[in-house]
Amino acid sequence: MRASFSTALTISMAVALGCGMAPSQPGAGGAASPPRFELSTSCMACHNGLVTPSGEDISFGPAWRASMMANSARDPYWHAAVRREVIDHPTARAAIEDECSKCHMPMAHVQTRAAGGKQTVFDHVPRAAGPSPAADPFALDGVSCSLCHQISSERLGERASFTGGFVIGGTGAAARPMYGPYEVDRGHLRVMESAVGAQPTTAPHVQRSELCATCHTLYTHALDDAGKVIGELPEQVPYEEWLHSEFRTTRSCQACHMPAVEAPTAIASVLGPPRREVSRHDFRGANFFVLGMLAVYRAELGVVATPLELDAAVTRTRAFLRERAARVTIARVDR
Predict the structure, then answer these.
(1) Distances 45 to 70, 176, 181, 195, 270 between C-alpha atoms, Å
(2) Partner residues linked to 222 by β-bridges
């Protein structure tokens, strides 16, 4: 009885002090309703301080916030690309910014579209004079924890899911599902429900490549000088390239870009049990160049990751390219 009381007290204190509840938003009739998403800071309260048996710190927050996923809304190359399109097609500015924010400012985009509007880009990006008063923190949080873990399995792998066509699960539910690969006991269910009003839900689809494909398969509309759509082109299709490779049956996107920890490790600092094959949340890829720009222009771009975290991300990325990227050789040249 004493042990049970102690455990309950520990969980209650963790919820009250460590996993600060996001403020509720007024709903219809003045009733409180939970926001559709959570900012990453809410998740970090319980998913930091994670150390493997060998002593490696795999805390999700520091690893993620130095990634391109976390900085998708701050990416200066993306800013330039969107600005170029807007300059070339000024009459289509609203449509361009709305389309381009689907996967670079996804949480804000979903919320804005749900409210009947179109998402803007440059109202939210950092500027020399400081953040805009209109800047939405959900826009700047990029591809955040709450976004990926609330994408449902609905239509994954279908053409309709590409180009940001993911479906957010549990809309309107009392407790939003927060999808993950593990079974969660009743006690830990209550921790997340109390902290952020979300319910951990076992869902194998979060480890499928089709989840990544929703934003990493991009078909872009081509516009004429008047801003009218004249065609469509595949801008980037790494999922479809993977689908036609030998890795389709052996390794998912997550297996390479979120490599698993070998030893069982807790994924929560609040009485989290050890889990097998925990995915690192550093989202290692190839873009060390932009990561370097984020490090140099941290203040101008409003980067949250520390210089040490960004340096570690660049080092991981370079190593990933050297050790894990495909090697292409030219066997013969016909003249």
Answers:
(1) 17, 19, 20, 10, 9
(2) 231
